[in-house]
Amino acid sequence: MTGKKTTASSSRGTPKKAKIEDEEEAGLENEEEATVTLSVEKDALECDICCLPFQSEVFMCKNGHSGCAKCCIRRDGKCWTCSERIGDMRCRPLEKLLAAATTSCVFKSNGCYDAVSYLERATHEETCQRAPYKCPIDGCAYSGLRLGHHVAQDHGRRDGLASIVFISGKAVATVRKDEPFRVLLQRNTERVFLLLNGHDLLQGRSLSLLCLGPRFQDGVEVEPRYKMEVSHGALTLSASGTIQFARRLDGFQAEGFLFVPDAYWGSAGSIAVTVRIYF
């Protein structure tokens, strides 16, 4: 008896073709999204008017000229290039580029190799553990990671420029009316505390504390607190709070201070300040 050989049919075609299709599908599933690395000149990501880096919002006029939000406001919404209206239309492609961009830390030479989001670089630089600290002594050009060691070694001698008080929890510092600050050092640390003597008030001075040094210790952010007291006869003035951090004295603005009236300074023009620093 003769008959016909029956072959099973399939929508995938022959076994060889099916195998190829399976491999292609597997390749598509395993395919990773491509990453494009661009090299962009710094000024291409800066506002043409203020020359500062763009933030998250970038505006453009109908002719494509871009600007930051602050400059659009300062220019009363008038494009500085073509005089068309600017400030209503966002430059979305550039905003997407800024949001995706990363850059190396500005303190890479000091050992920070983090890839930093372009829009968050300023925040990173404020808290970077490899950021240098500038010596507060007038005329000194030092800027580095070992500020405490530098001040103690180079300015702590009898002929040094700084008036240094070593503090271990508590210290009494004599402050003259004509000196801008006293240096308070804790041994075996790179933090430098400054007892600032502000002269921007009428009929008195403002005393405040600033820390020049690392904000983190063993990877944990520290918040040192202080209490300072000034006595005058039976009266005692006091202030307490959290010590502010900065990388340099220049431009620092104290958020809180102890007001000491001129009468407290006496004929010698000095006062004794009791300072406690605790973590």
From TrEMBL:
State the SUPFAM superfamilies in the record: TRAF domain-like
Q: Where is the composition biased (Acidic residues)?
A: 21-33
Task: Identify the keywords attached in UniProt to this record, alphabetized.
Answer: Ligase, Metal-binding, Zinc, Zinc-finger
Where do the segments described as Disordered lie? 1-33
Q: Which InterPro entries does the UniProt record give? A: SINL_plant, Znf_RING/FYVE/PHD, Znf_SIAH
Domain (SIAH-type) spans 100-156
UniProt superkingdom = Eukaryota
Q: Transmembrane residues, as ranges?
A: none
What GO molecular function annotations does the UniProt record carry, in alphabetical order?
Answer: ligase activity; zinc ion binding
Biological process per Gene Ontology, one example term? protein ubiquitination
| Polar residues bias: start-end ranges | 1-13
The protein's job, in short, is: E3 ubiquitin-protein ligase that mediates ubiquitination and subsequent proteasomal degradation of target proteins. E3 ubiquitin ligases accept ubiquitin from an E2 ubiquitin-conjugating enzyme in the form of a thioester and then directly transfers the ubiquitin to targeted substrates. It probably triggers the ubiquitin-mediated degradation of different substrates.
* Name the UniProt record assigns to this protein: Ubiquitin-protein ligase/ zinc ion binding protein
Q: Which organism is it from?
A: Zea mays (Maize)
Name the lineage: Eukaryota, Viridiplantae, Streptophyta, Embryophyta, Tracheophyta
